[in-house]
Amino acid sequence: MARRTWMPTPTQAENDRAAEGEHVIDKEHDGSPILDDSGRERPPDPKPPDPEPEPEPLPPDISSITPTSAPLPDVELIVYASNYDDSASILFDGAAQPTVHVADGVLRAAISFAGLPGVYDVEVRDGLLLSNAVPFTFEPAPEPEPER
To answer: What is the secondary structure of 97-123 as a DSSP string?
Structure first.
């Protein structure tokens, strides 16, 4: 039969401190506190510092778009941006557009718009993060040439 080593039972206060993450004072085998060189009870080990929080991710940042205006209804929009990953998409007037990742910092979307002429926001969404808005102007469609 294996020999069992007697361990002291912790006090309620020690259990409470342990539940809060504090290291409990070690005790001698008879349950008495461990004393330091001066004969006083050794203070508990300090609680280790909390780990550094992860830095907040930066939202995407649009530096420019090309073109900045076009006649209705279609345009191929190139967005130059940073701080996004492969899941990012271009938003036109708040609606996600099928987005192609052309190169680092370059996104492309073919926009077919059935709205009215005017200024609309272009943004990049990466997960829950949203970029700054850059204006794009849809101009009226050119009038068709009259038939002769």
So the answer is: ---EEEETTEEEEEEE--S-SEEEEEE
In terms of Cα–Cα distance, which of 68, 81, 116, 77 is closest to 97? Answer: 77
Confidence (pLDDT) at 3? 59
Residue range 86-95, pLDDT digits in tens: 999 999 999 9
The two tokens of residue 108 are 């492309």
Supply 74's token pair.
């279609």
**Cα torsion angle, 96, 102, 106, 108, sign:** negative
**Torsion-angle region of 116 (φ positive above 0: left; ψ -120 to 50: alpha; else: beta):** beta
The residue whose two tokens read 């080990």 is 45
Stretches where the chain sits below pLDDT 70 are 1-10, 21-31, 33-34, 42-45
CB-based contacts of 147: which residues, under 8 Å, 6+ apart? none
Superfamily in which the 61-139 domain is placed by CATH: Immunoglobulins (2.60.40.10)
Q: pTM for the whole thing?
A: 0.64
CB atoms within 10 A of CB 114: 6
**Residue ranges per structural domain of the chain:** 11-47, 61-139
